[in-house]
Amino acid sequence: MSQHRTGAEGTGTDETGAGRSRGEGPAAGGSRGEGPGGAATGDARAADGTLGHADRIPEYAERVLDVADLIPPGRVMTYGDIAEWLGDGGPRQVGRVMALYGGAVPWWRVVRADGALLPGHELRALDHYREENTPLREAPRGAEGHLPRLDMKRARWDGVIGDADAGGEEDRGAHI
């Protein structure tokens, strides 16, 4: 599933898959204001000023980011869905990967199971959801900030590649 990345989306990979980097996206040295992934690759320099091995993304993280890249516009997967899809790790491990490296992928498509918007990134994520027509549920009037939540029943992607919109609206909500 790993893809060979070049340009602004990242550098390539060697034949073993080791040493991949996500390049110049917000996760690669971006600030917290640019989306998840502010503590990122490329920031660790040795005493002589050269980059050390900290600019390489661990293999598990690369796999998580590959899945995030697959999620179609207007659809979402939970942290747990991705861990289950990979057959490795759990929601916390996926969340950690997204926090450290997720700025270079469509991070707004990897969400909490309750549909709440990512704290600290609610408005940026909401802009993406509206642009992609991701199903939302309006917040109750008493809710803090009156921010909507994702309509998980309709927005959740089942992970089937090439079948993102097959069957129309009634199939949205299939689980892994």
What does it look like?
This protein has helices at 59-70, 79-86, 91-101, 122-132, 152-155; strands spanning 77-78, 110-111, 136-137, 149-150. With 176 residues, it is mainly alpha-helical. The strands form 2 sheets. The chain has a two-stranded parallel ribbon with strand order 1-2. Helix 1 (59-70) crosses helix 2, helix 1 (59-70) packs across helix 3 (91-101) and helix 2 crosses helix 3 (91-101).
**Poorly predicted parts:** 1-34, 38-52, 166-176
Q: Give the class from helix and strand content and strand pairing.
A: mainly alpha
Shape: globular
Strand order of the largest sheet: 1-2
Number of helices: 5
SSE pattern, N- to C-terminal: HEHHEHEEH
Kindly report how far apart the N and C termini lie.
17 Å
Mean pLDDT: 72
Strand content: under 5%
Q: How many strands, which pairing sense, and closed or not: the largest β-sheet?
A: 2 strands, parallel
DSSP E strands, number: 4
Q: What is the CA-atom radius of gyration, in angstroms? A: 17 Å
Amount of helix: 25-40%
List keywords for this structure.
single chain; about 180 residues; mainly alpha; two-stranded parallel sheet; disordered N terminus; disordered C terminus
Give a quick summary of the entry.
By secondary structure, the protein is mostly helical.
